[in-house]
Specification:
The structure holds two protein chains of two kinds.
Chain A (H helix, E strand, L loop, with lengths): L1 H17 L5 H16 L3 H22 L9 H40 L2 H7 L4 H13 L2 H22 L5 H9 L4 H27 L5 H30 L2
Chain B lengths: L1 E10 L2 E11 L4 E6 L5 H9 L6 E6 L2 E2 L5 H8 L2 E4 L11 H12 L4 H14 L15 H13 L5 E5 L7 H18 L2 E6 L2 H7 L2 E6 L2 E6 L3 H4 L3 H7 L3 H12 L1
Parallel strand pairs in B: 3-8, 3-9, 6-7, 7-8
Antiparallel strand pairs in B: 1-2, 1-4, 4-5, 9-10
The chains are: A mainly alpha, B alpha/beta.
The complex binds adenosine-5'-triphosphate (ATP) and magnesium ion (MG).
Chain lengths: 245, 253
């Protein structure tokens, strides 16, 4: 019951967000700030994780495909498919649910606890529009982050492959170019856009409607992380089933 | 003038505000007093439209929040200044940005004019040269004053303060009380203050409303509160020996 109620409340939040928009002059600043807080500040960790996990994926693929039975280019090909289809869009989004999601929940939640949201409301400002909308717009740059992750993941894989002596650079590059299906890119970016929307709205929902004090802000962040992950994973399944299945 | 008629409000079937009727006049500081948990904050939040109430009517100079359009609601709200119990400053903004916020939201003034106005009100609350500080770097008393500055920067018609001087030393508390009273007279606005501080009651309580368990038990002025024989008021206001003595001396005069 509570679950259905919350889903209803979530959609009501989205509806209320579109009423009474904030002045553009103010909104512009909010979008820039949220872009910095969510997207730009995640560049470092995303690059780091992508490069090294890309390396590990390649090493493991290389180790399990040794022997003359497998063609040389297979490692590059498999690395590309893994990273573009699953690792960059989904696994990075789960990491972002931890980093950006808990940031959004705790920053909105602490505004709730300290009555800052009430202060916005009594001034006649649509607090949902003020707080959530700029985060959605900022996270529309999220696909840019995912492209970087794809690039660095494959680069990491190539580095690990070549310097680890598993295969040659030209074989790896061959692999990357083998049987490339452009629709896989489309699929990955459709996923990314949907995940970006989830990353912006689900944590906002948990922060906005939380009750209690500072302790509850922490609890809300944890809960928001779990629900963001669950939502991402369910949508991952549904989109994959629809687009590729 | 704000008029409240038969207001009732409950949470989860527990009635917190019980059938309160009263009115608050323009140009006067009205105080709502009562023990902690008596419903002062809930009452104020009903007036502010932050809590929906099930019974009664609240009229802002004859206008009922519930019956006007979104646009009119927004206009009315922008004429209300609020100081919350915990200041509720935006902690990601500097003091200057906090005070400028209502101006930015509701006016199209150029930046310099807004800044002039901000500096004017900051000076009014004796906070010159703190523009660039963050709220977390300000003391409790400074935060309260910033909150007052933010509440009055847009020249409101109504000012609501929830315990503006709780947790402050007696001297600063009096300064803040007098500041609110002066501003009320200066701008000729309707001011409502929640308080359980007896000093404020005596100093600035031109009209006092006493709540107990969500019921309005007494109302009058700070002069009348000395002579009242209302048992609940005596019990609350004159709970300390000091005030018992003060009352005696006053009545003997
Ligand atoms: N959102 C809420 N949900 C349920 N009960 C509430 C809520 N807000 C307040 N109450 C209850 O209403 C009663 C009155 O609370 P209120 O905050 O108005 O007291 P107060 O007079 O402002 O006290 P204080 O002087 O300590 O600020 C309390 O019993 C409180 O538990
Ligand atoms: Mg209170």
């Amino acid at each position: 019951m509570k679950f259905l109620y919350n889903i209803g409340l979530y959609f009501l939040m989205l509806k209320r967000m579109l009423r009474k928009p904030t002045k553009w002059r103010v909104m512009k600043e909010l979008i820039l700030k949220d872009t910095n807080d969510t997207v730009i500040n995640s560049l470092g960790i995303i690059s780091f994780v992508s490069f090294f996990i890309g390396g590990v994926i390649t090493i493991q693929l290389a180790l399990s495909t040794t022997g003359s039975f497998y063609p040389d280019y297979l490692v590059g090909y498999a690395t590309r498919e893994t990273i573009i289809l699953e690792f960059a869009p989904t696994i990075i989004s789960i990491i972002m649910a931890g980093k950006v999601g808990s940031f959004i929940t705790s920053s909105i939640g602490s505004m709730r606890v300290t009555e800052q949201i009430d202060a916005l409301e009594v001034m006649g400002i649509n607090s949902i529009n003020y707080l959530v909308f700029p985060k959605i717009i900022a996270l529309m740059l999220y696909p840019f982050l995912i492209s970087i992750s794809m690039f660095l993941g494959i680069l990491g894989g190539m580095a690990a492959c070549v310097y680890g002596g598993y295969s040659t650079m030209s074989a790896f590059i061959d692999g990357i170019q083998t049987d490339f299906i452009p629709f896989h890119m489309t699929y990955a970016f459709i996923k990314t856009f949907i995940f970006a929307f989830i990353l912006a709205t689900v944590p906002s929902f948990h922060g906005y409607y939380m009750k209690g004090g500072a302790l509850e802000v922490g609890k809300a962040s944890t809960k928001s992380f779990i629900w963001t992950c669950v939502t991402i994973i369910i949508f991952n399944f549904l989109i994959t089933q629809m687009l590729l299945g | 003038m704000i008029r409240v008629k038969n207001l009732s409000k409950s949470f989860n079937n527990k009635t917190i505000i019980k059938n309160i009727s009263c009115q608050f006049e323009r140009g006067k500081t009205s105080l709502i007093i009562g023990q902690t948990g008596s419903g002062k904050t809930v009452f104020l939040k009903c007036l502010l439209g932050l809590h929906d109430y099930e019974k009664g009517e609240i009229l802002f100079d004859g206008v009922n929040f519930k019956t006007i359009s979104e646009y009119e609601k927004m206009k009315l709200k922008s004429s209300i200044g609020t100081v919350f119990q915990g200041s509720a400053l935006f902690d990601s903004m500097t003091i200057e940005e906090n005070v400028m916020f209502p101006l930015k939201m509701f006016n199209n003034l150029p930046f310099d004019e807004m800044l002039d106005r901000v500096n004017f009100v900051l000076k009014r609350v004796e906070l010159e040269n703190s523009n660039k500080k963050m709220p977390s770097e300000a003391s409790g008393g400074m935060q309260k004053r910033v909150a007052i500055a933010r509440a009055i920067v847009n020249k409101p018609n109504y000012l609501f303060c929830d315990e503006p001087n709780s947790g402050l030393d007696p001297k600063t508390a009096i300064i803040i009380d007098n500041l609110i009273k002066e501003i009320t007279e200066e701008l000729n606005i309707t001011t409502i203050i929640n308080s359980h501080d007896m000093n404020s009651v005596m100093e600035i309580g031109e009209k006092i409303i006493f709540l107990k368990n969500g019921k309005l038990k007494w109302n009058g002025s700070n002069k009348e509160i000395f002579s009242t024989e209302n048992k609940d008021v005596l019990d609350f206001v004159y709970s300390s020996n000091l005030y018992k003595k003060v009352r005696k001396t006053y009545l003997n005069q």
